[in-house]
């Protein structure tokens, strides 16, 4: 059975923590009996399947649907037309102007349902995914007139829409496809929601009381003008009522602190692809600027910064600003992140509309990320707590704290941990061929490869460790804690520097792993094609996990919660959710280092003239001088961190390097004290009650959506006031 399960590829529906977070949220919404739906795109190929060739990342299509998906239910009767291109015409109807979008291209969105069951409840909610297909009438007409080639091309063009997750948007065509995908998702979803609402309502008066829509980052923001269009153009409502409804149903979660990640679309592209939406956005912006003028007077500079339209040679639509204007609530995903949103990224908006801003710290579902993926520790928890109720109420794990120093419990904890490490070691051998010792410390960093996440800091630390081992006598080496350093994660196909970092890590690994002086004291392993199934093995098997982004760059992070929940100790900066993890489990049970968020701006300004730790310069020079080969190929990496020019080392690797190595030294010393390390491991798990996505979703439900639990009635229980025929009709609904 286990072999069969492993043959099924992961559903390629998301990228990194954001997609995984959505899956955790669905699990929690189902478990908490909330009447909720998730919507997404049924990607044919997902992002890509990562392979390594001579240490380089290679991207291959991820054919996850090759053998079908047994968990989904196709709904061929649930389809909606999705329009693109064309022009807008105005018609007089009963004395009022009605806008008609005459589309130049149309596809059908077909629904595929993926049931999401809750834990310990009869409730099952739904994830509805949309697949793009050609419009049937046009397809048939083409075949009937003998234009088979045209019909096939139309079919291919339509299906391209839902083919690939995150198409490379460095080209105009890539940008166009991304915007088409976003509109495709939003239009189909909103048509579906409106259709279900109209089934039981003759007017839209109750719509804001019945519907709450959460924008998961800026990607679905085009849904704001799409809802306005559907209400006004398709359902005959006026602007005032449509805007009132729109601003009452939409809320916005921001997931980033990187300005470049806040989406902007060229006005030219928007006008071509979605002409009616561009008109509506202009109208929203004009009304917003009129309101601003009443508040700011003639402060045109601030108004220009807050405008939804960014002026200039190439005008663009600021999607985050559109969300801020239209949504009733805006939230960050960790306490530090929400403060950065208010004080830096959206500070002008916060001054004018502070009541909109909230924080909702992320969480993960303990059902998958502890109960399911770590059966050994889960069994221990249930035995020690005397109940498995922690699977639904994670706060109960705090009752482990008094047992953290109990030698008998520590022995059982370490035995469960060892079994997890053996499983991870077997997986590493299967995937990479590398044999690693379970006696070594398993030091893990798994996440998307990005400069701000600082996998490069990890690599430079490994180079320094290698140099120190090489300089030791055989006697001195006996005191070294053996360590296996694992990195996993994908670099975006267009992110050249991230791909060079993968190659650098593998080049260092080749040198270190084949050096007889080092032996098992240090092994470097890159785990290819990191995904959820691999994480379910990696997370329970890790001793140490690195979450070392520059302070103020990681919105939250969720893998830090997963590792801590499983008794893995964290080495990290005071960034994202690390700050709150430190508050909950105690900073003394983590290895915290590095510059604080409020120091970063000044440190960046002074980076060129700052004195850095000589060990940093030594490690960088080894790369520069070709010690690991490929000197020319790695030159851009060296230039990005050596502080030789303005903007170099933007993420402050040189600044934090000394503190990072000191923290790693403390890790080694603590690991040698087995009882102390185990105590910290148990306290880490015991302090993670806050980081259940159940807590996060309760906060969304109570403070943003205003929705209450709605447990499904027992189908065998007859409802009062219904005869048998009515009962069957209601069951069918």
From TrEMBL:
Function: Allosteric enzyme that catalyzes the rate-limiting step in glycogen catabolism, the phosphorolytic cleavage of glycogen to produce glucose-1-phosphate, and plays a central role in maintaining cellular and organismal glucose homeostasis.
Pfam families: Phosphorylase
One GO BP annotation of this record: glycogen catabolic process
Lineage: Eukaryota, Viridiplantae, Chlorophyta, Pyramimonadophyceae, Pyramimonadales
Named cofactor requirement(s): pyridoxal 5'-phosphate
Entry GO CC: cytoplasm
MF annotations from Gene Ontology: glycogen phosphorylase activity; pyridoxal phosphate binding
Catalytic activity from the UniProt record: [(1->4)-alpha-D-glucosyl](n) + phosphate = [(1->4)-alpha-D-glucosyl](n-1) + alpha-D-glucose 1-phosphate
Keyword terms, alphabetized: Allosteric enzyme, Carbohydrate metabolism, Glycosyltransferase, Pyridoxal phosphate, Transferase
EC numbers, comma separated: 2.4.1.1
Name this protein carries in UniProt: Alpha-1,4 glucan phosphorylase
Location of N6-(pyridoxal phosphate)lysine modifications: 562
Gene3D superfamilies, A to Z: Glycogen Phosphorylase B
Entries under CDD domains matching the protein: GT35_Glycogen_Phosphorylase
């Amino acid at each position: 059975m286990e072999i069969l399960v492993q043959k099924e590829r992961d559903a390629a529906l998301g990228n990194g923590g954001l997609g995984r977070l959505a899956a955790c949220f669905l699990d929690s919404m189902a478990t908490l009996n909330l009447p909720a739906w998730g919507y997404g795109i049924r990607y044919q190929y997902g992002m890509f399947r990562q392979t390594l060739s001579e240490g380089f990342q290679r991207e291959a299509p991820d054919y996850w649907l090759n053998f079908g998906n047994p968990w989904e239910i196709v709904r061929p009767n649930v389809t909606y037309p999705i329009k693109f291109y064309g022009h807008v015409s105005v018609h007089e109807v009963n004395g009022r102007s009605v806008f008609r979008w005459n589309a130049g291209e149309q596809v059908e969105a077909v629904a595929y349902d993926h049931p999401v069951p809750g834990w310990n409840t009869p409730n099952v909610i739904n994830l509805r995914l949309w697949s793009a297909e050609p419009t049937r009438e046009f397809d048939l007409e083409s075949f009937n007139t003998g234009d088979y080639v045209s019909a096939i091309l139309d079919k291919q063009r339509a299906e391209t829409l839902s083919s690939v997750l995150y198409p490379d948007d460095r080209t105009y065509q890539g940008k166009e496809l991304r915007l088409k995908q976003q509109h495709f998702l939003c239009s189909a979803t909103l048509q579906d929601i409106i259709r279900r609402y109209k089934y039981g309502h003759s007017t839209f008066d109750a719509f804001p009381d019945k519907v709450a829509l959460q924008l998961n980052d800026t990607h679905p923001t085009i849904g704001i003008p799409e809802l306005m269009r559907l209400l006004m153009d398709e359902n005959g409502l006026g602007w005032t009522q449509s805007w009132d409804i729109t601003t009452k149903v939409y809320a916005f979660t921001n997931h980033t602190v990187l300005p470049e990640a806040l989406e902007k679309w060229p006005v030219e592209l928007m006008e071509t692809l979605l002409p009616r939406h561009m008109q509506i956005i202009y109208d929203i912006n004009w009304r917003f600027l009129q309101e601003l003028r009443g508040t700011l007077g003639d402060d045109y500079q601030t108004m220009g910064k807050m405008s939804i339209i960014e002026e200039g040679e190439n005008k663009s639509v600021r999607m985050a600003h559109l969300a801020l204007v239209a949504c009733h609530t805006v939230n960050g995903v960790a306490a530090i992140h929400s403060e950065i949103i208010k004080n830096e990224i959206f500070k002008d908006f916060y001054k004018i509309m502070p009541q909109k801003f909230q924080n909702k710290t992320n969480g993960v579902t303990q059902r998958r990320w502890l109960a399911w993926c770590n059966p050994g520790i889960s069994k221990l928890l249930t035995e020690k707590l005397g109940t498995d109720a922690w699977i639904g109420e994670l706060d109960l794990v705090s009752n482990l704290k008094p047992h953290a120093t109990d030698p008998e419990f520590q022995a059982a904890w370490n035995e469960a941990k060892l079994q997890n490490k053996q499983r991870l070691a077997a997986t590493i051998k299967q995937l990479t061929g590398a044999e690693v010792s379970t006696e070594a410390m398993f030091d893990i960093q798994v996440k998307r490869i990005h400069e701000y996440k600082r996998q490069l800091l990890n690599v430079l630390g490994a180079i320094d460790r290698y140099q120190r081992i090489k300089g030791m006598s055989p006697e001195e080496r006996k005191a070294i804690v053996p360590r296996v350093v694992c990195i996993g994660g994908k670099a975006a196909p267009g992110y050249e520097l991230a791909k060079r970092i993968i190659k650098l890590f593998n080049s260092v690994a080749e040198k270190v792993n084949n050096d007889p002086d080092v032996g098992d004291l240090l092994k470097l392993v890159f785990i290819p094609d990191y995904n959820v199934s691999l994480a379910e093995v990696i997370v329970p098997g890790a001793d140490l996990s690195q979450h070392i982004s520059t302070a103020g760059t990681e919105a939250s992070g969720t893998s830090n919660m997963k590792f801590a929940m499983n008794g893995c100790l964290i080495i990290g900066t005071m960034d994202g959710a690390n700050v709150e993890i430190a508050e909950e489990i105690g900073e003394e049970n983590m290895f915290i280092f590095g510059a604080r968020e409020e120091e970063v701006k000044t440190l960046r300004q002074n980076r060129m003239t700052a004195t850095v730790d000589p060990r940093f310069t030594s490690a960088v020079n080894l790369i520069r001088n070709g010690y690991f080969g490929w000197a020319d190929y790695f030159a851009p990496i060296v230039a990005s961190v050596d502080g030789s020019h303005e903007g170099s080392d933007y993420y402050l690797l040189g600044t934090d390097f000394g503190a990072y190595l000191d923290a790693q030294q403390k890790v080694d010393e603590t690991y040698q004290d087995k009882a102390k390390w185990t105590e910290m491991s148990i306290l880490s798990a015991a302090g993670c009650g806050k980081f259940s996505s159940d807590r996060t979703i309760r906060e969304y439900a109570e403070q943003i959506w205003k929705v209450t639990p709605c447990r499904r009635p027992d189908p065998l229980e007859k409802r009062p006031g219904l005869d048998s025929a009515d009962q069957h009709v209601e069951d069918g609904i």
